[in-house]
Every structure is written in structure tokens, then in C-alpha cells.
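A further point concerns the way the authors explain their paired sequence and structure data. The central task, working out the C-alpha cells from the amino acid sequence alone, is never made concrete. I therefore recommend that a typical entry be quoted early in the introduction. An entry of this sort, consisting of the sequence and the corresponding C-alpha cells, reads as follows:
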Amino acid sequence: MQIIVNITKSWGIGREGDQPFYIPEDLAFFKAMTLGKVVIMGRATLAALPGGRPLKGRTNIVLTRNAEFEAEGVIICHSLEELFERLADFAPEEIFVIGGAEIYAALLPHCTKAYITKIFAEADCDRFLPNLDEMPEWQLAKTSEIKNHEGIEFCFCEYERRENYGN
């Protein structure tokens, strides 16, 4: 299992259900990485998607404690145990955690890779991802060259969980 997210300089991932930046190349990267795969998200992340609809061409799983939540076109899980039972049919490299903050926090210990688009700008965020650069169990494995979109610099980073930390 892996996470995929874009972050600000302070590892912010959003404010009031919205991303801090929309960068076309990052959106294309997200689509290329997740198309045909499983995406796991929380209820608020599903609501923030265009039209509040599941992502096309992917198996969409919503993890929520809300027992009354219903949504068309998604698999709903109410616990980590239920989620892991559902995920047993999929290879770990086919599974992407796509948000929000609570879902990242709950599943990060179970991930072996993290695809992080680092945006070298700041935004007013109320949701954050733990800073993987400060976590000894994570190491930066790959970094793209610095790119630019309308004056905003960013790069694509791939982190790996260190083998001696397991999952």
C-alpha cells in the first residue's frame, strides 16, 4: 500500500476540504499512478472530488466511521479490519491512499511507499501530513528535477519505508 499526495512547504495538504494548489502536471501524475488501481479515501475526500463522485477507472473505497453513510459507486468500510479484509484481493502496489489527513494518519504505518509532490510554496492549511523527512522509518528514494507552474516550483518525490521498520 502506498500514499499519494501533494504538500506545501510545511507539509500542508488542504484547507476546509480543498487542496492548496492545483497543478496540471501533478493532477496528470496522480491520474497516471492511480488509474486502474484501488484508491482509499475518507468521506470528506469523496465529497471534495468533482461532483462528489468516485474517480472513474478505479476501485474507490471510502473508510468512514459513519454507519449511515451511503454513496453510489464506492465500497464502504467502517473499520480498518473491514478495510484490510476488502484489500486482501489486491496486490499492495495496486493500492493508493488518497486522503484526507485522518485516513493518511491511520494508514501510513501500513504503507511501504509514498508519492509526494512537494510544492515549494506555502498556503493556509488546516490539514497536514506527517513530515516524512523527519521520520526515521522513511527515506527519500527518488526526486524529480524542480518543475515550475505559473511561478510555483514543485518536484515529485518517492519515499520508501526502511526495511528494518516493517509494516
Remarks:
- The CA atoms of residues 28 and 85 lie 30 Å apart.
